[in-house]
Write a structure and sequence with these properties.
Layout lengths: L9 E6 L3 H12 L4 E5 L10 E4 L8 E4 L11 H9 L3 E3 L5 E3 L5 E3 L3 H23 L6 H18 L10 E3 L2 H15 L3 E4 L2 E7 L2 E6 L4 E10 L4 E3 L5 E4 L2 E14 L9 E7 L2 E6 L13 E8 L7 H14 L10 E13 L6 E4 L2 E4 L5 H11 L30 E2 L2
Parallel strand pairs: 1-2, 1-12, 2-9, 6-16, 12-21
Antiparallel strand pairs: 3-4, 5-8, 6-7, 10-11, 10-14, 11-12, 13-14, 15-18, 15-19, 16-17, 17-18, 19-22, 20-21
Helix pairs in contact: 1-5, 3-4
């Protein structure tokens, strides 16, 4: 049965629901363009997805991000995010940290680490660039990532050698931040559909976009990230689905009493201590339920090669909370639940920029701030028009179980 082109004619198709894509959708819709946002997942956010974990010990469930996030201090980024999300970005009282190979806590940004990063990326560009030239297709992604990260460092971060600016975060946490971005894009006039884009080809003066169910759309412009999961077709006239490999992670939410917290770390990256990856504080609006007062929640991101048993999991959580100096020695903590996350790592990355007239890609490479800073520098309007700010305590911005239809949420 032949495909039928959707009758609705869209100006812009935004592929993916990462923060940058939602910001772009809002901006285009405010300008009066007909915008459709599509995502292969029902849960919005891409790597910034949120989830609801059922807490049987309390009346309310726990809304949480499913990965640890930090937004670095790139020029103009916080101001742009504030305007796009309609929520203040405030200086983090506890600045992000890293745990070095020797187990020492270090500032997230410091001169030695910055210089080492520059040297590592330069070596990565040279080594993987040579492998790419020699025909090692698997090295291409590493070459592109290192090249773009090095360019970002030299363009935006080299000034950190004179002193690092304070990092900021959204006042009510990342669940609220992501939900606001989505709601504001929809309120501006954009629509959302669950679709997995598998091909993009020219059709006259427009682009024909095909999804995994063989439905098609005609659009004037396509916007996506470089990791959208597409590659050039053999004829060089469009893009088709690329291969991807699963990246399995476990995000565990734990709860501690205020009295048992040694340091209210907001984010700690952990260097090469398997299975530990990162730990972050789960910030939310002020609690309405009195039982929530006097407690703090933290998200521990782990990566096991297989499903861990309870003893292994508890041992990893204890090590993470101690290594990051979050809990007082021997203090108890409560494991609320966990989310098994399967992130698809694309083997083929697209180049950044305008691939053809009306097909534009944006590169974030796991760094939202870098992606926005490059967008502000290269493609953003001089004076972006956003929706007016939200009320500070917009209850509607909180995720609810009915809103979320995503990764399996379960108690461990």
């Amino acid at each position: 049965m032949p495909d039928k082109i959707a009758q609705e004619r869209w100006d812009d198709l935004v592929v993916g629901t990462s923060p940058l894509m939602l910001m772009l959708a809002q901006l285009l819709a405010v300008e009066g363009r007909r915008v459709l946002i599509v995502d292969r997942d029902a849960v919005r956010g891409g790597a910034w997805q949120t989830a609801i974990i059922k807490d049987d010990s309390k009346r309310s469930d726990v809304a949480t991000e499913i990965a640890c996030h930090v937004i670095e201090a790139f020029p103009g980024v916080y101001e742009c995010l504030e305007a796009a999300a309609g929520v203040p970005f405030e200086t983090l009282r506890e600045q992000p940290m890293r745990v070095g190979r020797n187990g020492r806590l270090l500032p997230y940004f410091n001169r030695p680490l910055l210089l080492l990063a520059a040297l590592r990326m330069t070596a990565g560009v040279a080594v993987h660039g040579l492998k790419t030239v020699l025909g090692r297709r698997s090295a291409r992604n590493e070459y592109l990532n290192n090249r773009i990260k090095l360019a970002n460092l030299l363009r935006f971060q080299i000034g950190y050698l004179r002193g690092c600016p304070k990092m900021r975060g959204p006042r009510f946490g990342y669940v609220d931040f992501l939900t606001r971005l989505y709601e504001r894009a929809i309120r501006a006039g954009a629509d959302f559909e669950r679709r997995e884009v598998t091909a993009i080809h020219r059709d006259g003066n427009r682009w024909r976009v095909t999804d995994s169910e063989r439905r098609t759309l005609l659009v004037s412009a396509v916007h996506a990230t470089t990791s959208v999961g597409l590659r050039p077709d053999q004829a060089g006239t469009g893009w088709v689905a690329a291969k991807a490999r699963p990246d399995l992670r476990l995000a565990v939410v734990v709860e501690l009493a205020e009295a048992d917290i040694l340091t209210h770390q907001c984010y700690v990256g952990i260097w090469r201590r398997w299975p530990l990856r990162r730990v972050s504080r789960v910030d939310t609006m002020p609690p309405v339920d009195k039982s929530e007062a006097g407690i703090k929640r933290f998200l521990v991101e782990l990566q096991f090669e297989r499903r861990a048993n309870k003893r292994e999991l508890n041992s990893a959580l204890e090590e993470a909370l101690d290594l990051t100096a979050i809990r007082r020695p021997g203090a108890p903590f409560r494991q609320i639940g966990a989310v098994e996350c399967v992130a698809m790592q694309n083997i083929d990355l697209l180049p950044e920029g305008e691939l053809a007239d009306g097909v534009i890609t944006y590169h974030t490479s796991g760094n939202l701030a870098a992606g926005i800073a490059n967008w502000l520098r290269n493609r953003a309007p001089r004076s972006p028009r956003w929706l007016p700010p939200d009320m500070p305590l917009a209850e509607s911005s909180l995720a609810t179980p009915e809103d979320v239809d995503g990764p399996a949420n379960h108690l461990v």
